[in-house]
Automatic annotation (TrEMBL):
Highest taxon, organism lineage: Bacteria
Protein name: Quinate 5-dehydrogenase
Species in which this protein is naturally found: Phascolarctobacterium faecium
Length: 315
């Protein structure tokens, strides 16, 4: 189903086309500085042809497009690598900017970690953190380490099912430089849950979840592999629905922090938020980090924080 057109109003319309489950579809309206924004998320259940068709049909009809359930780019060793499969999805999109969230993650998530530390919400010094995948969130990874956290990166564990924890940014970067040229040429579904798999739980490597105080990173990895109980843990993630909150609450998670705000009971992916900022600016392409930081401040877009179990207190 094609997202509805908004030609009869001055709304800015942002649509995220995702390779994820259609069960997570959503639509929200928000006001920012007197401007109305309509944001939608359309899942294609892992159907690449359907995603490509939607993107092409929406081209020129909306103000910005998001690409969800996959990445378009990954950064390693100062270089940007493009996922071949994702690039094919948008090769015929010529008129509307397409954002995958990678440009915003570096700014938004770095700001979030630094703010949590500065506002004394979390004292990261010495805290044990499991970051389920660091290479696609290098800004968050660097900020966690800079604030004194003892971080275990699970890129090889959860992405490749190789029980090999990474304990430093330098090692993470080395593996990324080694593997990125190969992995970006392979089907994304080989190492990332797509479609119905995003809703299927498959607890694995549970010890890493249990031995760390904070679990951070991609929520689809967290949801798929986490144990049934995570009593007292703090989760820093994104793309969380009301159903996901219930799952985490029942698991005993103490605090949920989302990198984007909650809208109508869910936090949208960074690809949606990046699309929103690009549409708000009137730009026709990805912006640089300094501009994103300025727009985040100007539009007062803040992260979400919710205590699911227990009282609000210093973490």
């Amino acid at each position: 189903m094609i997202a509805s057109q908004t030609t009869e109003c001055s709304c800015k319309h942002i649509v995220s086309v995702s390779l994820g489950s259609s069960e997570r579809n959503a639509k929200s309206t928000l006001q920012l500085k007197g401007q109305t924004f309509i944001i939608e998320r359309l899942g294609t259940d892992g159907n690449l042809q359907k995603a490509r068709q939607l993107l092409e049909e929406l081209d020129g009809r909306v103000d910005a497009l998001g690409l969800g359930g996959t990445d378009l780019y990954v950064y390693a060793g100062g270089r940007r690598y493009t996922f071949r499969e994702s690039a094919k999805l948008i090769e015929n999109v010529k008129n509307t900017p397409v954002l995958d969230g990678s440009g915003l993650k570096n700014s938004l998530e770095r700001i979030l970690i630094n703010r949590l530390a500065a506002d004394k919400i979390i004292d990261f010094q010495g805290k044990k953190v499991l970051m389920v995948c660091g290479v696609d969130r290098f800004g968050m990874a660097e900020a966690l380490v800079a604030n004194g956290a003892d971080v275990t990166f699970g890129d090889l564990i959860f992405g490749l099912n190789w029980d090999h924890p990474i304990k430093s940014l330098q090692t993470l970067d080395s593996f990324a430089k080694l593997l990125a040229p190969l992995l970006t040429k392979l089907p994304v579904r080989w190492f990332y849950p797509m479609g119905a798999k995003q809703s299927q739980r498959k607890p694995q490597h549970q010890g890493y979840f249990l031995e760390n105080d904070i679990i951070a990173g991609d929520f689809h990895f967290i949801r798929r592999f986490m144990p049934d109980k995570l009593a007292g843990k703090t989760i820093i993630t994104n793309t969380v629905t009301a159903g996901d909150r219930k799952l985490l609450r029942n698991a005993g998670v103490r605090c949920l922090i989302t990198t984007t705000p909650s809208l109508d009971g869910r936090s949208y992916g960074t690809n949606v938020m990046e699309g929103l900022l690009v549409a708000a600016s009137g730009a026709d392409k990805q912006l640089d980090a300094a501009v994103y930081e300025k727009l985040l401040e100007e539009y007062k877009i803040e992260s979400g924080l919710e205590y699911l179990n227990g009282e609000e207190e210093h973490i």
